[in-house]
């Protein structure tokens, strides 16, 4: 008698589908691996281990859990010894690549119309975006300020001044990109 083969599927927890590319939203993207033989046995779940992916291959140590940040990953499922009596078998070990893309955010400038008053007014120039956390974009009360390159903004200047705002941390650069970003960059934006 041959062992019954179990089909194994990898699906997103809470979604029920496999997605090759996801978009960053501050949640851990966990997959569930399960198998069944068409209803003859109870559904069986398998452990999923996550690795960073470099050139489509697992790299380094296993991650502590499902990934949160944007990047390329490999989900590895090991069905192990499904049934000690040998009645069932499954695919063994397999790896599935997936990625989490950076979330595009819109930068809001707080003020852009000034009247000359003989003082440096650059401190009134602010740029911010609304981050994502636990699957939702946060309200304006949780805005994240972008760093603005320092320039003296005092005298009237023909053509105006150009300010550049950019992400302040590496994690911001990893998980977000700016709508209308400066040419050749996705982490800074200019305003004249």
In short:
With 192 residues, the chain is mainly beta. It is 3% helix and 40% strand. It is elongated.
Report, as a whole number of angstroms, the end-to-end distance: 77 Å
Trace the largest sheet across and list its strands: 3-10-8-6-7
Helical residues, percent: under 10%
Computed structural class: mainly beta
Count of extended strands: 20
Shape: elongated
Secondary-structure element pattern, one letter each: EEEEEEEEEEEEEEEEEEHEE
Average pLDDT metric: 77
Number of helices: 1
Tell me what the structure shows.
There is one protein chain. The chain is mainly beta. Helix content is 3%, strand content 40%. It has one helix at 170-175; strands spanning 4-5, 7-12, 21-23, 31-36, 44-46, 48-54, 57-59, 71-78, 88-89, 93-101, 103-105, 108-109, 127-129, 132-133, 136-137, 144-145, 147-148, 163-166, 176-178, 188-191. The protein has a five-stranded mixed β-sheet, with no helix packed on it. A hairpin with a 2-residue loop joins strand 14 and strand 15. The mean pLDDT is 77.
């Amino acid at each position: 008698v041959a062992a019954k083969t179990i089909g194994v599927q990898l699906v997103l927890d809470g979604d029920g589908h496999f997605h090759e590319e996801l978009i960053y939203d501050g949640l851990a993207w966990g997959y569930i691996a399960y198998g069944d033989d068409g209803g003859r046995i109870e559904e069986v779940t398998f452990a999923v281990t996550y690795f960073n992916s470099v050139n489509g291959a697992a790299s380094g140590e296993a991650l502590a859990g499902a990934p949160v940040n944007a990047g390329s990953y490999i989900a590895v499922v090991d069905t192990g010894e499904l049934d000690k009596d040998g009645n069932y078998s499954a695919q063994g070990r397999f790896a599935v690549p997936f990625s989490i893309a950076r979330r595009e955010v819109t930068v809001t400038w707080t003020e852009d119309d000034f009247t000359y008053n003989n003082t440096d007014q650059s401190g009134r120039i602010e740029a911010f975006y609304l981050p994502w956390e636990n699957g939702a974009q946060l309200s304006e009360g949780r805005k994240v300020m972008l760093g603005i390159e320092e320039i003296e903004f005092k005298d009237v200047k023909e053509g105006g001044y150009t300010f550049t705002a950019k992400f302040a941390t590496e994690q911001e650069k990893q998980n977000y990109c700016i709508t209308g970003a400066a040419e050749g960059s996705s982490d800074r934006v200019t305003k004249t």
